[in-house]
Here is the input.
Amino acid sequence: MGPKELIKTSQQIGRWVGKFKTQMNNFKVMLNEELLQEEKQKLKEIKELAEFKDTKGKPTDGTDHG
Here is the structure.
């Protein structure tokens, strides 16, 4: 392999590495967004459960039964 071919091959490898890094970064962003959505859903469910527990057993007619 001569110097010209070595330069061309090195440039091609550099482009491939750059494309690979870009794709990996895109994947990381997508994965982080997905994890964030799952966390938000879990927090929403926990909040709803806590609100349900707070209202459970409390009188709704304004009288205290406790």
